[in-house]
Recover the amino acids of this structure.
């Protein structure tokens, strides 16, 4: 799979779909803040790590793939499920990079200046995320 930016994909969605993603992501953030107020920042951080946007995007990916196949007279059920599953796998791999980011913040936030800690954590996140691609390919090819 080749990763590339496809700006035309933005026109495939409906405005309400983007609003739903925005609202769900914001709602998850607010709920995480409330949880952090009651049970502390560790519990709030765990809730914030929940990929709220994933729930909306997985169903939208499935829907769009089915619609695309229907336009060609095909069912598209398998294609929709496969595309959503691929997105879920990518979210799982991406979570590893987010864990690396969180670990740096957790271990160094009290020892380093905030901006430096955020910069280093972001660079670590980027490095881990980029390194996940060849690792994913190697795991996939070994099966």
């Amino acid at each position: 799979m080749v990763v590339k930016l496809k700006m035309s994909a933005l026109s495939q969605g409906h405005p309400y779909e983007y609003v739903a993603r925005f609202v769900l992501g914001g709602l998850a953030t607010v709920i995480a803040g409330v949880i952090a107020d009651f049970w502390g920042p560790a519990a709030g951080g765990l809730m914030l790590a929940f990929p709220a946007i994933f729930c909306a995007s997985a169903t939208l990916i499935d829907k769009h793939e089915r619609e695309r196949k229907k336009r060609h007279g095909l069912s598209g059920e398998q294609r929709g499920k496969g595309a959503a599953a691929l997105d879920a796998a990518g979210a799982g791999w991406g979570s590893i990079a987010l864990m690396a980011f969180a670990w740096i913040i957790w271990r160094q936030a009290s020892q380093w200046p905030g901006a430096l800690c955020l910069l280093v954590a972001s660079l670590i996140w980027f490095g881990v995320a980029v390194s996940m691609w060849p690792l994913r390919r190697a795991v996939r090819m070994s099966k």
Notes: The two ends are 16 Å apart (CA to CA). The mean pLDDT is 81. The longest helix spans residues 77-108.
